[in-house]
Amino acid sequence: MSLPRQSRALVIVNTEFRGSNGEELLGARRGAKREAEKLSRMLSRLNYQVTLAHNKTAEEIEELYQREGGRQHGRFFVSVISSHGDEGLVFGCDAQPLKLSRVFSSGNCPALAQIPKIFFIQACRGRELDPGVMVECDGGEPEPGCCSGYLSIPPQTAVMFACSPGYVAFLNLCGSMFLQALLKVLEGEERHLALNRLLTRVTGEVALRCQARGTYQGCKEMPCFITNLRQEVFPFAVPLE
């Protein structure tokens, strides 16, 4: 009996942004590379075949997703993009923008069309700072965040953003609020939850337990997600190796 195909994961992290003559175009993202490596190792422990790509141009990022469309996939496809960004786009290491709609549309190819595709986007979606608000509640899980209405995604796709539309996503030498929260959930028993509940746990971890330090002391971040999945899925519900 042949073994089932292994699910695949693609992790892309951009940390240096330079022009053709070597000048720095956008700020360096210190802490992002080590965080992406940790995520890659965690996904490998969760039985994903992981490709980790560092400092790719906008064109190269799109080519990586097109390449995934020609590969043999298992039950799921998971991808993480960690870079500078703005609403609806991320930047390549050449500081050129890439529309996220082009990234998500890679899932329309035959190899990926029928399987659940899950994207995690660690990038700013604007320049606004979220000072946070004090709330009172009676307990329970926080509600999932919202997403831009105009951003459409293909069927069988879920996308989670580090922050709400128009706002910045924080990163420091230890990593980002968002991906650190994702790592914490994947390391714990929450990884056995259905995806929508797992993502809600990540949202709650960031929104209720994290805040910026240093220059932006006290500022908050609110992850949000959108999904076109047609059924509950459990992409990380395996024993850790």
From TrEMBL:
GO molecular function: cysteine-type endopeptidase activity
Boundaries of every Caspase family p20 domain copy: 5-128
Cross-referenced Gene3D superfamilies: 3.40.50.1460
Annotated GO biological process: proteolysis
SUPFAM superfamilies hit by this protein: Caspase-like
Residue intervals of the Caspase family p10 domain: 175-237
Pfam families: Peptidase_C14 (PF00656)
Superkingdom per UniProt: Eukaryota
Family label: Belongs to the peptidase C14A family.
Name by which UniProt lists this protein: CASP3 protein
Annotated source species: Bucorvus abyssinicus (Northern ground-hornbill)
Annotated gene: Casp3_0
